[in-house]
Design brief:
DNA-binding; homodimer; 5 helices; 104 residues; alpha+beta
Chain lengths: 104, 104
DNA sequence: TTAATTGTTTCCATTTTTAGAAACTAATAT
DNA sequence: ATATTAGTTTCTAAAAATGGAAACAATTAA
């Protein structure tokens, strides 16, 4: 007999576990290695292998591996393709330091 | 005589004006065209020309123009180089839809 | 242990981005 | 209007990312 639970309940259960995507209020500095870790976390939450995710995205498992381990940089387009295949939304924001300006 | 005001005060004054970076709570979908607009907004807040920003980053003004108008995609590394030159921090987060999972 | 699965690394070819330079357009100032 | 500044587009070459394939390593299952 199978039991159906929501992803929210899963998050409640596994919140804070390494390798899982945490709640919305968690923000990350935009860096390639952090992005790679997020891709891996999202893939694992979807219970996919790199090969399966590769099929969804349309690339080979080797590309997914390279992205997750941030072997090199990546283009925005590639990042978006992968998160889209994982049915995940990515948001960002920019914060500028509170420098002082001279008003003439 | 010059008057010195903080960037916060500037934001208070110009909040909502087109082409300015708005407050932290404003989030943006991670897309190349939105990133380009943010680069332009940040550059203008720093009161820099494309040529000056190019010098800071170490590229020609043409590259800056291409990024801002999102003529093509861009690598994460390039995006970060530009925002760093603008002394701006970029954060992101991933939200996964609340799908249902089958637990065996 | 062995077999099967999953993930990593390497090689090569192709595509795309990055870069400099110059020509061009648009906007601003004198 | 003309000159100056700012931004865009095009051209070329170089660097880097992407992609397929196979070999390799690591993990898991039987």
């Amino acid at each position: 007999m199978k039991k159906t639970i929501s992803l929210s309940e899963m998050k409640d259960k596994y919140l804070g576990m390494p390798g899982t995507i945490e709640r919305d209020q968690y923000e990350y500095e935009l860096r390639m290695d952090v992005l790679g870790k997020m891709i891996r976390a999202a893939r694992l939450e979807r219970k996919l292998t790199q090969e399966e995710l590769g099929r969804l995205v349309g690339v080979q498992k080797a590309q997914i591996s390279k992205l997750e381990s941030s072997a090199n940089s990546a283009t925005i387009d590639t990042i978006l393709k992968v998160f889209k295949a994982l049915q995940a939304e990515v948001s960002f924001y920019v914060k500028m330091e509170d420098n002082f300006l001279q008003i003439p």
